Amino acid sequence: MTDTLTRRLIKELMEFRKDPAPDLKDLTPEKEDDILVWKAILEGERDTPYEGGQWKLRINIPRNYPMAPPNIKFMTKICHPNIHFKSGEICLDVLKNAWSPAWTLQSACIAIRLLLSNPEPSSPLNCDADAETRWATNLL
Amino acid sequence: MNSQTFPLLIPEDTEGSSYLGFITIKGQEIPFGIHIDQRNARNLKNAHLRGSPELCRLVAGQEHRLEQCSTLEEFLIDLKDLLEQLVTKEENELMRSGTYYSTLLEELDAIGWDKLQSIDHALKNISLRIKYIGQHALLFACREAITYNHTVFNVLISHSDSSGRQHTIKVILPSSYPSDPPIVHVDLPTSISISLHSKSGLRKIISLFQEEVKQFQDLWLLLEDFDNHTWVLEPDKPKRSDLMRRIALGNHCSLQIDVDVKNPRGICECRLFGSEKTVGPLQDRLNKNLMRWDQSLTIRQNLEAILEMNFPSPLTTSKSEFNVECGICYSYRLNDEIPSQTCNNEKCGQPFHRACLYEWLRAIPTTRQSFNMLFGNCPYCDDNITTMVVEK
Question: Cα(B199)–Cα(B181) distance, rounded to whole angstroms?
């Protein structure tokens, strides 16, 4: 399994380098000798409060990837209802039970970027930010 | 201790438990050391022999023959006897019997010395170039390694016809040759060795091979027509003995044929692979038009007419269009298996390895299993997908 895992990850890396998604500034293994730990740098979407910011993500890939989802965390502090302020943990269905091997590290990062502009107030990991979002929505 | 028999032995310590020296075998001095356990001086069962790798290799597995000795001198005499026996045996292996060489020389005489390209003094490496009418053949022989006791002959025949096929015959001559028959490895759809009897020499092998090759000309012509005009997915690198081809039809479909070696121009066995919706119409055409098979056409022409389509060829398409990777492991070949399961959804059609799809589906709580079939959802389009249980 390790061999096929490495092959898939190398293909994903090549795919990203060939055709990188906009706003995904970097997606690469953190160290040369460990392909199971990656880092990504997200850029905040335009016309959102996150515009102009850059967030570093750490991606830990389980041995049974792509059968199991990668574990992605925010390393840079971010204020968002679905992201834990201290641990950087992300509440996103594709990183949990909606995962399928059709997703890639790149598409998962894009999903996280979309989460920034479309928070899911129903599953908050940051209650203060969630309350603020609800307030803001109610006011509008 | 009789120092006359073993003058080249010196004690390493004062107790006389360790000795270093040389033992002379057939005029050759082999260095060795011996350590004796003094507590058990009655026999030398625990004597520990050290020496060169050569000595260790010779003695390996023979230690029991030295255990009976009670004194060091006896031990050394036994050791010398044993080593002499073993060395003589090895030399005999190296030098084969006179008949072996005379037969080989006779055969070379018959084949013709003018065909000889190179030879070494021990007749270990022989390479020959043989010209036939309209054909060139290269007979190449080499003794691979002494330990294997193999003589390997390779015959390369290049035909003068436009296809210029090259064939290789690998002949292994056992050390008891010519009383034991040679072992012949050929890349032919049928086995040539069955028709060989013990008296078959190299010349006989070559002529038999030529006969066989002649017989398969039409078969190879038909298969080469396939190889050159279609995208062959399997086998990866077709050999002359391969009668099966799996070709890409596009739309995640493939066709597998098995050619009848006795009647290559006859109707061949066909199997279609792919999603039901794309394979269905092709299967109908196959059933409807199979009667129109024309023996004067090639297999490819027949199949193209029957399926009412032109097969994607290397001239019009690139292989990457058909070499579609498995949607789970992202590779094409996984333990020699190619992605053979495809999603039946026309818009999806994503191929998977059976092992990968099974691995994914069995971990999903909504997957149902009935006997050895798993019913679940495609990881890509969420449409229904089924796969067989893969035994590990």
Answer: 7
- Inter-chain contacts counted by CB atoms under 8 A, chains A and B: 31
All domains of chain A, ordered by start, with CATH? 2-139 (3.10.110.10)
Q: Calculate ∠ Cα A84-A88-A90, nearest 5°.
A: 70
Query: Which ipTM value was assigned to this complex?
Result: 0.80
User: Among residues A62, A86, A63, A65, which one has the least CA distance to residue A74?
Assistant: A86
* Beta bridge mates, B272: B255
E strands of A44-117, at which residues?
A: 54-60, 71-74
Lowest mean pLDDT of B129-133, B252-256, B353-357, B388-392, name the range. Answer: B129-133
Find out whether B296 and B264 touch, Cβ atoms under 8 Å.
no
Query: Which chain B residues in 347-376 lie under 8 Å from chain A, judged by CB atoms?
Result: 350, 356, 359-360, 363
- Give residue B198's identity as a one-letter amino acid code: S
A79 is catalytic: no
Give the per-residue pLDDT at B147. Answer: 26
Phi, psi of B143 (to 5 degrees): -90, 110
Question: Chain A interface, mutation test: which of B330, B337, B348, B350, most A Cβ atoms within 10 Å?
Answer: B330
- Burial of residue B368 (CB within 10 Å: 0-12, 13-18, 19+) is exposed
Residues B67-123: pLDDT tens digits? 777 777 777 888 888 888 877 776 665 666 677 777 777 877 777 776 666 665 656
A contacts of B331 (beta carbons < 8 Å): 4, 7-8, 11
Contact map slice: B 299-328 vs A, CB within 8 A = 325, 327-328
**Distance (Å, rounded) from C-alpha A50 to C-alpha B137?**
75
What's the pLDDT at A1? 45
Q: Does A13 touch chain B (CB under 8 A)?
A: no
The two tokens of residue A55 are 């967030």
Residue in the block written with tokens 């910011």 = A53
